[in-house]
Design brief:
Oligomer: single chain
CATH class of the largest domain: Alpha Beta
Number of helices: 12
Helix content: 25-40%
Largest sheet: 9 strands, mixed
Radius of gyration: 23 Å
Mean pLDDT: 96
Distance between the termini: 27 Å
Strand order of the largest sheet: 11-14-17-16-15-18-10-1-19
Number of domains: 2
CATH architecture of the largest domain: Alpha-Beta Barrel
Structural class: alpha/beta
Shape: elongated
CATH superfamily of the largest domain: Alanine racemase
């Protein structure tokens, strides 16, 4: 059975973005494929990115890492957010690097390695100012000391030291400068304790593209991998990135209505004149945020047409004016920038909803079918 809507993912765009970013950074890359690759499909995106030269994959959770392994993706992978009672033995057995931020987690990883009879490979995270995960300045020496102890015992290998930036989208930010300094200090402490990590990594997409001092041994690319401007203003054309996802559906009902017709719940919208209303089978359950109401538009019949009235769970109504619209006509909610037509982009949807493109992409619901372009060429 066919789905009511599709998210079409261009894997050639993903691969092209990898090559574009690599040309800028001249540094090995980690493709961040957490949250099902920002809604694009983790296994498919991972294969495309690896085929384009990425050396590492990054995910949030153990379940995401193990799902990649189950899909046959064997590339080096870092999983970085865990419960203290997570199945670390499964990660060790699957040859997944485990991100560690506290002694509590490190003890659990070491215990799992001891019971399994195989060493765990870990990457220690320092909190350099984000105040989320990672060991802070006061706690970092203790974490490093425990890691060195377990390494000497043969139960743990420390492959990496890493952190995450707070203000990477503003080149030259003093906050970024402070974080780089704190990260370098964390590395100094780790090496002073006897650790010799192969990898130090700090940069995300924005930093990788704009701040060479953040690149170290590896850059983690998330939003830019999917072709979205990580700066929220300069535009992906500045780097030649191309959006990988197009969200599309088709018109399932058309009504010609007179002035004064209420549209959707409330009604919060009443037509100002005679107009054509087109029903699109996408709603907030599919990722169309209600916060975008009153601003959002789609591409229909060769023009941008506004969504009017409340966005419902499963559907929304588009005011097509006097355009010739029929049932079955294609609708593009967002897609890559195109010179021949002014279709909305995911960045615009983010602005309309008062959020970032990450939330829009990861919010595309499970009942929206994922379809892939250039999949065979990218994954063979």
């Amino acid at each position: 059975m066919s789905a009511l809507a599709e998210a079409v993912v261009d894997l050639a765009a993903v691969a092209g973005n990898v090559r574009t970013i690599a040309d800028v950074t001249r540094t090995p890359l980690m493709a961040v494929v957490k949250a099902d690759a920002f809604g694009h499909g983790a296994a498919m995106v991972a294969r495309a990115a690896l085929g384009a030269g990425v050396g590492w994959l990054g995910v949030t959770s153990a379940s995401e890492a193990l799902a990649l392994r189950a899909a046959g993706v064997a590339a080096p992978t870092l999983s970085w957010l865990h419960r203290p009672d997570d199945d670390f033995a499964a990660l060790i057995g699957a040859d997944v690097d485990i991100g560690v931020s506290t002694p509590t987690h490190l003890h659990a990883v070491a215990d799992a390695a001891r019971q399994l009879g195989a060493p765990a490979t870990v990457q220690l995270k320092a909190d350099t100012g984000l105040s989320r995960n990672g060991a802070g300045e006061d706690d970092w020496p203790e974490l490093v000391a425990w890691a060195r102890k377990y390494e000497l015992e043969g139960g743990v290998r420390v492959r990496g030291v890493w952190s995450h930036l707070t203000d990477a989208g503003v080149p030259g930010s003093p906050v970024l400068e402070r974080q780089v300094a704190r990260f370098e200090e964390a590395l100094r402490i780790a090496r002073g304790a006897g650790l010799d990590p192969d990898l130090a990594h700090l940069a995300n997409s924005a930093a990788a593209l704009s701040a060479p001092k953040t690149r170290f041994d590896l850059c983690r690319i998330g939003l830019a991998l999917y072709g979205v401007d990580p700066f929220g203003g300069t535009g992906p054309g500045e780097f030649g990135l191309r959006a990988a996802m197009t969200l599309r559906a088709c018109v399932v009902n058309v009504k010609r209505v007179p002035a004064g017709t209420g549209v959707s719940y409330g009604p919060d919208h009443v037509t100002a004149g005679d107009t054509t209303l087109a029903l699109v089978p996408l709603g907030y359950a599919d990722g169309l945020l209600r916060a975008a109401e009153g601003r959002a538009a789609v591409w229909l019949a060769g023009r941008r047409c506004p969504i009017v009235g409340r966005i419902a769970m499963d559907q929304c109504v588009v005011d097509a004016g006097d355009l010739p619209v029929s049932i079955g006509d294609p609708v593009v909610v967002f897609g890559p920038e195109r010179g021949d037509r002014d279709q909305p982009t995911v960045a615009e949807w983010a602005r309309w909803a008062g959020t970032n493109p990450n939330e829009i992409l990861t919010g595309i619901g499970a009942r929206v079918a994922r379809e892939y372009l250039h999949g065979k060429a990218m994954t063979s």
